[in-house]
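Supplementary Note 3. Input sequence used for the single-chain structure prediction.
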Amino acid sequence: MNEILAPIVGAENITATDGNLLVTPETAAQMSQVVQLCQQNAWKIRIQGGGSKLDWGNPGAKVDLTLSTAKLDRLIDHAVGDLTVTIEAGYRFQALQAKLAQAQQCLGIDPPYPERATLGGIVATGDSGSWRHRYNSVRDQILGIKFIRSDGEIIHAGGRVVKNVAGYDLMKLFTGSYGSLGIITEVTFRLYPLPQPRQFWLCQGEPSQIVELRTIVLRSSLTPLIVDLYSPCLLQNLGYKPAWGMGVEFAGISAEFQGDLLDKMAQNLGISCQLVPENFPRSVSKTFETKGRCKIGVPSAQALTLFTPLADSHPLQIHLGSGLGLLLINSPDQVTEWRQKLIDVGGFLTILTGEWGTDRCYVNPSVKELMTKIKHQFDPRGIFNPIEGWGEAG
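The predicted structure, written as discrete structure tokens, is reproduced below.
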């Protein structure tokens, strides 16, 4: 295999570690040629960006080689006046944010592993972070995308402005696809003014008080970047008192004014509020960078009541605008129990990190059938990341 690939990408861009072949093309054209070879030989491919989320999805699947986008790391175009940026998929998130900050602009996402995560990987995993409360999800911020199809052809959808096209909305389809449909090589994002200065407030109280504060804040004229719920266990691990908490971040010239309004709302309910360091959300994120990380979805109004039995023993974070969040679980029995509880209220539980001999996610049979058809349409020989690990409701 090395002899076939070396003339395309160069021998220096091929490494073998523990029997695994890592191929790092320097251009999308080289990547395309490698995919053509894989299609012809039915070689199965794992796609890798910064390597920060390799244990998400289906890490145990057998593959013939790993294709890395690490050297697809060019900033192609930053249209400051249009608030758009076009970058290759291997560009690191934190490096891009630093570059954009020079023009007082930013991407409206705050994913985990900001130092290592690539933009292609963020799109492929649909990983938006807590800023989705203000800016919506990462898929809502994509204006254009390029990807390599399973036959090696490079496909371009969208552009620097929003366009309606017949057929699939490829920007949305590829967001959260985990590399199962093709290899993302380039993305165009809409940008936002850099949110500065910022203030982060932590409000803690009894469950009923936090529920009421949530309702008041979400119905108010406040415009926070973040409105998150935290379990007592999570906050105790971070050095705060073991009580339910709600984190609210404000930005801009009105940040202090809005923070004062939040403080007054909380005081009227008997809730204590305090300003915490600006890096507090990153500290929360690091809590979940371990085995047992599960992505959950729940009607946000029911979140606190539903998770009360786990509150004192499990780190939990829920974005109260969307109902999406993270939960640390430490046994397969808990996965089965809580997955069913969430399905019963219209939610879900997906294992991101952890191998417990149980399905990583449950997909409704009718949805599973549709996803399988789409997978076959885009990747008929099944060379890209497989999407195994689906289970049926128990």
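Residues 17 and 65 are 11 Å apart (CA to CA). The first strand starts at residue 14 and ends at 17.
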